[in-house]
Every structure is written in structure tokens, then in C-alpha cells.
Amino acid sequence: MIKTNKIKPIEILMVEDNPGDIRLAQEAIKEAKVVNNMHIVNDGVEALAYLNKQDKYIDAVRPDLILLDLNLPKKDGREVLAEIKKTPELKCIPVVVLTISKDEEDILKTYNLHANCYVTKPVDFGQFIEVVKAIEDFWFTIVKLPPNGKK
Fold first, then answer.
1. DSSP state for residue 57 in the 8-state scheme
2. Rg (CA), the chain
3. Rounded to two decimals, what is the model's pTM?
């Protein structure tokens, strides 16, 4: 009997309201060395519905990594982060804050809310691609992620 090794894709949830940043991240991740599925939600309310498998997200896959912008409509990224980290089923999912803010107060607050890392989005296209690739290399090549429990 031939045994096939199926590579399980890495599930990424990107919480971002800027279509340009979404497109850049998708482009960078498409060139990835790892098999991945990228899921996109555009605001904080939608992010929490996705993560809690509510409404249209009843069959949503639990992400292995969350890329979270701070400045989101409906529910701020800080509020989303706080909800994730206080929910037992979600708190082990690494959250990378990927935002334009360089404000020290934002950085301190997100780490106090247990963000796994804080990355400032570069404005330059090439640098943005490099940042996303570096995040991907670190989280999917170097770091050992927790098991992805489906239920």
C-alpha cells in the first residue's frame, strides 16, 4: 500500500479593512514556501463571528495564526484581541498585530492584551511584501504552533 503524505495547509485569518493591504498580504503569502489558506474578514465584529463560528461562519476553520489590524470598523482590533485572549478555545492562537500605528501606547496596550507580536506595516510595497514573508517564515518555519483543535 502506498502511503501519501498530505500536507495540512496552515490556516490564516486576516482581519483587515484596507483592500490594498489585503491584496499585498495575499500576494506575499501566495509565494509562500508553506501550503496555506487565507481567510479574510473586514471588521472586528466579523472577526469575532468567524472565530466563534457564528452566523455565516458556522463552518469556519479555526485559524493557526491571526493577522490583526488595530484600526477596524465596528469593533476595534484591541477589543478583538482582548476577546480572543480571554476565550479559552481561542487564546492559544497566535495573534500578530499588523498595523500602521507606531504609537508606543498602542504597542504597550496590545502586549498587555497578550498579542504575540506587534509589527508596523511599512508604506512601501516591497517592504510590505518582505514584512509579510518574514512573519510567515517565523510563524510557519521556526515556531512550533499549538495543535489546531477543530472543536
1. G
2. 15
3. 0.83
